Amino acid sequence: MAKNYIEDVLSLQADQLIAEQETQNHLTGNETLADETRDRQLSLSHSPDGSHNEELVSLFNLAKKIRFTLSPVSPMGNFQAKLKQDLLTKARLRHAEQEQVASHDLLIFTALLGFLVSLAGLFVAKKRWREQVTFALF
Amino acid sequence: MTADINETKLIEQAKSDPEAFGRLYQLYLEKVYTYIFYRTGNHHDAEDLTAKVFHRVLDHIARYNNRGIPFSVWLFRIAHNLVVNWYRDHHRKRLVNIEKLNLATDQHHNPPQIAEQTNEQELLLAAIRQLPLERQDLLALKFVEKMSNAEIGQIMGRSESSIKSLYHRTLVSLKEILAEHENVVKN
Fold first, then answer.
1. Which residues of B touch A73 (CB under 8 A)?
2. Looking at the domain assignment, is residue A78 inside a domain?
């Protein structure tokens, strides 16, 4: 049996196992789905030339056992709560700092804008004064 | 699809809203914890590394942009890197700590059959933990996190076809380890 074919079939079976688990999480006692998966795996274990592959079947069974063994693990309740509290405190602190920085930036921007406006005012006043002086001379 | 849109919204909100970050944390906590637990083999280090992952996520989430990399892949890349660093820094040996592993069986039903099943699971977990780290990682991402080969490839920095090939080699190695153990028991 070609190596690529075996790799493809094993990956396909793993995807089926995961999909089956996901569905079983939603529909318990779905015998039809279990039969369907079994049939699909049986057909996968036949190579394109029609021969049945014992090696592939044993790898299928091993994959099933792995899926069953590696079940989700829940962290302890007090750890969950403490970590959440730590993260929220850090996030709130950072949020407050960011708001402070933003208001500080706004203050600097406003001051800079005020300075530029007054500078422009001085420039315009000086220009008008020069124009008046020139007009008075002639 | 709607779930994806809601999650995308939540991620955007979490960048500036601490409460939204809290909801994102609830959504991913068990997934991250399970992944790290199977990689380290004990609750103490799993808690320590899970906390580091979420603190790092909080530090960098403002810079996260979904440019072809889903949030889960970005998150698990952080977890993967921290686990790799943990192994490197602590020069950890792959110790099997079976008694601490939380197995998926209900001990109250059919005790003899369950005991046999648990024993088989313990053996399998022990065998998994004898695999090279990269292969353990692949099994955890595939069967615990239910990720596709493409997503695993993004996390591990490999192509999709190389993940397929690695998965095949992983199953073969695992079978060999289990067969070796069976031979030892028989002799």
1. 30, 33-34, 37-38, 46, 102
2. no
Q: Whole-angstrom Cα distance, residue A128 to residue B98?
A: 90
Give the CA angle between residues B28, B30, B36 to the nearest 5°.
100
Does A65 share its domain with A99?
A: no
Compare all CA atoms of chain A with the CA of B122 and give the residue at the minimum distance. A69
C-alpha dihedral (B160, B162, B166, B167), degrees to nearest 10: 30
* Whether residue A99 is found in the same domain as residue A137: yes
Do B33 and B46 touch, CB atoms closer than 8 A? yes
Q: What is the pLDDT along chain A (138 residues), one digit of tens a residue?
A: 677 888 888 998 898 888 877 776 655 545 555 555 555 555 666 665 555 578 888 899 999 999 988 888 999 999 999 999 999 999 999 888 877 777 777 888 888 999 999 999 999 999 888 888 877 776
Question: Is A81 domain-assigned?
Answer: no
Whole domain around residue A104: which residue ranges? 91-138
Answer whether residue B105 shows pLDDT above 70: no
- Among A69, A104, A127, the domain boundary falls at A69
- B30 chain-A contacts, CB cut-off 8 A: 72-75
Residue written as token pair 């943990």: B86
